[in-house]
Specification:
Layout (H helix, E strand, L loop, with lengths): L2 H6 L3 E2 L8 E12 L4 E11 L7 E4 L4 E7 L2 E2 L5 E3 L3 E4 L5 E10 L9 E5 L4 E5 L19 E10 L4 E4 L2 E8 L3 E12 L6 E4 L2 E8 L5 E8 L8 H18 L7 E7 L6 E2 L4 E5 L12 H16 L8 E2 L5 H19 L2 H21 L10 E2 L8 H18 L1 H15 L3 E2 L1 H12 L8 H4 L5 E9 L4 E9 L14 E8 L9 E2 L2 E2 L4 E5 L3 E7 L6 E4 L8 E3 L4 H10 L3 H25 L7 H13 L8 H8 L4 H6 L6 H18 L1 H11 L10 H17 L6 H11 L4 H11 L5 H14 L3 H12 L6 H10 L8 H12 L2 H4 L5 H16 L1 H12 L6 H15 L5 H11 L3
Helix pairs in contact: 2-3, 3-4, 4-5, 4-6, 5-6, 6-7, 7-8, 10-11, 11-15, 13-17, 16-17, 17-19, 18-19, 20-21, 21-23, 23-26, 25-26, 25-27, 26-28, 27-28
The structure holds (3S)-3,7-diaminoheptanoic acid and zinc ion.
């Protein structure tokens, strides 16, 4: 690794946190937008904080400083110093006015951080979290500096909508076909929540009356002509507002709530106060272009950004190490919201699947970090599954341990005690201790220890004493810079089933605990003895996934099948099915490795028979849930169970199993398909219809593995095209894996139909990037050059390159071509947009999990990258992934 690059990328440590020397109470910002540049005038009211030092150090990057005045007097060049990243004003008084003018170039901003011009939408917009504001003007760009913002925007009238945070206080005409608008945000906020938008939009409007009868104007701004695609987003917003009042007593606080949808956006969305900016992907939906999953994701992301108004905006983070304070909490809130609104079982399954496929590998790899990291080089690299999703799991555990009522009390106290402040995770945990009277010292380890804990469970039944004993042993593997771990507090929600599948009463310490109980593990080894257990029970453990751990109990195949049928906890029914399938898939993988003949296990097929012939026919069946029960564990998750991920054998095993299931149950799949497929029914976002669509499409996906049914897929594809994207996409995804002229025909028709709809073109790219036919990589490379692809547009990169990186057999093909292609893309991307480049490099950083030949090829690419000039974003990930263990 070259010394130069190491010196340029210095880590920042939590232990070095200091309160700011200066505070800014008010900022008056005026942004004049011109075709080629923007002038930014910022008037700051600055005051010394407790520790008065005489130099004021402001952050600023890529700015042209035009002038600087202190108390109205222009400073001479020896009174301040400008570096690449700072503006240092020497010998300032304790309280003063600072006026700074800078010039910036939004159209040249390809990193999409700060103020930029979004090409695909033809609008100006901002993204300031985490450190974008310093690309707009010199400022104390830290979350613990809270100021009142007044913002004036001037622009040509071709941008009719000029928006910023808070309430509109003035607007009007200016000479030269220009106009202005002034916005005032009454709530003090850190600059990462600042937003500005200038553009031409269609607007959909509605109102919401809060529980205390406050009228709020709701506005969603979308690209011209797309207003009909914002109705689901508007509906989702109202559902979120109502839910947060009912569940957490949180009410909205401004007169207006605005959402703007932008086509070029690095992330999903951003919670700027009163003016959320969203990726179009999480706003726009209509039946012919959006799938059920898109509709669900919109509900959840709209909810997420709305919930941030309290968990993030009213109470914010002291520093970026506390990121999970707002992100973990807000994910927890949005997960609870979609569970309540849609389905407790299915949403939990989705969330756990995502956790296992993204966060568990992160926790087991070279980039593992605690939910509250203690060092970073580039904070944007820490918007991770660990900070977000594991952070949410930690709060879910806290709610489980404290009980809903006490947890809610804690939330209320958190919001009232810290309203208007920038606080820490410790402040949050302290409150939960205050309201519960519990000592959470050990629980805090969830924030500081990285790695996924593993819990081994064994049991013993004594029919003489009628006691049943569970033995638990917990361990947590070493992670970078953390060799040894302490035992953690782990809540295990559980129940016992008797031989007929009935829940057994749980008696502990001679006390009746009901039919379900949460055990709290705290020791490395622990034992729990249940009394009055009249027959040998089958334990159902970790219900609803009550802790983010890997739990292992040595179930027999029969016991798994039994729980799969009888467990009262829907999540665990699914989980037992997954465990059963996982066993079989791992055995098949081994058989392939040894060159043995492959055979399907009868018990496994019996599970499918039971689902399809019995459960699917019951009057009360939940088809949405059933479609989850039909799915096999993903290749990614299978690989996670192995020391060395056998990419090709896993793929072959899974293909074999799916094909055998399809063959065995073709007729019944077809019956269910027919029974649940309607050509005429209009799409509705409704749980029953979603269930039907998901189930019949699961059946279709199996059927399409059989040559006889390719035409059935094509028929659905053609009928659904232009009407129902859920049905279109599933059929296309099936056709996409067929070496048949139907594949080309469908892909062509799809593109011709939707070539002008950016979000649907993204689907077209992602589907092809998920193809595992032999020539897939060359097709992906061709798409990279296709006019539909645009490396400057994050959604296009996520669609093509993101999906390619998740396509195991193609990315990991033995000749290393996949690695070479990805590394080339990352290098090109890093020059334009480091945040996106850093996201794309991730699959290479997992090199230690593969065989020696692949390891060598992946390392070679990583080392070559390190010898080029990299952004701190990519540098941090690549260098950490190469560090000696
Ligand atoms: N808070 C933003 C994420 C910002 C990411 C900066 N790299 C969106 C969200 O989590 O709601
Ligand atoms: Zn968030």
């Amino acid at each position: 690794m070259s010394d130069m690059s190491t010196i340029a990328h210095q880590p920042i440590y939590l232990k070095n946190y200091r309160a700011p020397h200066y505070l800014i109470d008010d900022i008056n910002l005026s942004v004049d937008l011109f075709d080629d540049f923007a002038m930014v005038r910022s008037s700051l009211r600055v005051r010394a904080n407790k520790h008065h030092e005489t130099d004021l150090i402001l952050n600023g990057e890529g700015l042209e400083l035009i002038s600087i005045h202190l108390e109205g007097r222009e400073l001479t060049s020896n009174e301040y110093e400008v570096t690449d990243q700072l503006l240092i004003v020497r010998h300032v008084p304790a309280n003063f006015q600072l006026d700074i003018v800078t010039k910036i170039y939004p159209k040249k901003n390809t990193a999409l951080s700060g103020l930029y011009y979004a090409n695909t939408s033809g609008t100006y917009c901002t993204q300031c979290e985490a450190e974008g504001f310093r690309h707009i003007t010199y400022y104390l760009d830290h979350p613990d500096v809270l100021a009142k913002f007044t913002t004036t925007i001037t622009a040509d009238k071709k941008y009719p909508h000029l928006l910023s945070n808070g309430n509109l206080t003035a607007s009007g005409e200016l000479p030269n076909n220009r106009h202005f608008a002034t916005w005032e945000d009454p709530f003090k906020k850190p600059c990462y929540l600042f937003a500005l938008v200038a553009g031409d939009f269609d607007l959909i409007e509605s109102q919401f009356t809060t529980q205390s009868n406050h009228e709020v104007a709701l506005r969603i701004y979308v690209e011209k002509g797309l207003a009909d695609q914002a109705t689901h987003a508007m509906d989702s917003l109202k559902r979120a507002m109502r839910w947060d009042e009912g569940t957490f007593g949180r009410e909205y606080d401004l007169d207006i709530y605005m959402i703007v949808a932008i086509g070029d956006f690095n992330m999903g969305a951003m919670e700027n106060k009163g003016l959320n900016i969203f990726n179009t992907k999480y706003v726009l939906a209509k039946p012919e272009t959006a799938t059920d999953d898109d509709y669900i994701n919109i509900l959840s992301v709209i909810g997420h950004e709305y919930f941030h108004n309290w968990s993030g905006n009213r109470v914010t983070c002291r520093d970026w190490f506390q990121l999970s304070l707002k992100e973990g909490l807000t994910i927890f809130r949005d997960q609870s919201f979609t569970e309540d609104e849609l389905s407790h079982a299915v949403m939990r399954i989705h969330d756990v699947r995502a956790l296992r496929e993204t966060q568990f590998p992160e926790d087991a790899g070279p980039l593992a970090h605690p939910v509250r990291p203690d060092a970073y080089i580039e904070i944007n690299n820490f918007y991770t599954a660990t900070v977000y999703n594991k952070g949410a799991e930690v709060l879910r555990m806290l709610q489980t341990i404290l009980g809903k009522t006490t947890f809610r009390k804690g939330m209320d106290l958190y919001f009232s005690r810290h309203d208007g402040h920038a606080v820490t995770i410790e402040d949050f945990v302290k409150i939960m201790e205050d309201v519960s009277g519990l000592n959470l010292a050990q629980f805090r380890l969830w924030y500081t220890q990285a790695g996924t804990p593993r819990v081994e469970v064994t049991d013993h039944y004594d029919d003489i004493t009628e006691t049943y004993t569970l033995h638990f042993t917990q361990t947590c593997p070493p992670t970078p810079h953390q060799a040894h771990k302490k035992p953690m507090t782990i809540p295990i929600k559980m129940g016992l089933l008797d031989q007929s599948g009935q829940a057994m009463p749980l008696v502990l310490h001679q006390k009746m605990q009901g039919l379900e109980h949460t055990l709290l593990l705290t020791e490395e080894k622990q034992e729990v003895v249940f009394q009055h257990v009249t027959t040998k029970p089958t334990p159902s453990l970790l219900r609803h996934f009550s802790a983010p751990i890997i739990l292992h109990y040595p179930y027999t195949d029969e016991a798994l099948r039994f729980l799969f049928q009888h467990d009262l906890d829907a999540f665990n029914r699914w989980e037992c099915g997954q465990q059963y399938s996982m066993r079989q898939l791992l055995q098949l993988t081994q058989s392939i490795e040894k060159g043995n003949a492959l055979q399907m296990n009868e018990g496994w097929l019996a599970i499918y028979a039971d689902l399809l012939m019995r459960e699917a026919k019951e009057a009360t069946v939940d088809l949405f849930f059933l479609s989850e029960m039909l799915a096999l564990p993903s290749e990614k998750y299978i690989g996670e169970q192995m020391q060395t991920i056998a990419v090709d054998n896993i793929h072959a095993a899974r293909v074999f199993a799916r094909l055998e299931i399809a063959k065995k149950f073709a007729d019944v799949f077809y019956q269910h398909y027919q029974a649940n497929h309607t050509h005429t029914e209009k799409y509705k976002f409704d749980m029953k219809l979603i269930g039907q669509r998901q189930f019949k499409n699961s059946c279709l996906a199996y059927l399409m593995l059989l040559p006889n049914y390719a035409e059935l897929g094509m028929t659905q594809f053609k009928a659904a095209l232009k009407h129902n994207m859920t049905d279109t996409q599933v059929a296309l995804a099936g056709l996409n894996q067929l070496d048949s002229p139907l594949r080309e025909e469908a892909l062509r028709a799809f593109y011709e139909t939707y070539r002008h709809d950016a979000l649907v073109v993204d689907k077209w790219l992602a589907i092809q990037a998920s193809c595992y036919l032999p020539n897939a990589l060359s097709q992906i490379k061709a798409l990279y050059k296709h006019p539909a692809f645009d490396i400057k547009n994050p959604n296009k990169v996520y669609a093509l390159i993101g999906a390619f990186g998740r396509n195991p057999t193609v990315f990991h093909q033995k000749n290393g071509e996949g690695y070479l292609f990805l590394a080339d893309v990352v290098r090109e991307l890093d020059q334009l947009n480091p945040q996106i480049a850093a996201r794309m490099v991730n699959p290479l950083t997992q090199w230690r999990r593969y065989d020696a030949a692949r390891q060598a090829l992946m390392r070679e690419r990583l080392e070559a990258l390190l010898h080029t000039s990299l952004s701190s974003d990519v540098f941090e990930l690549v260098s950490k992934s190469l560090e000696e263990k």
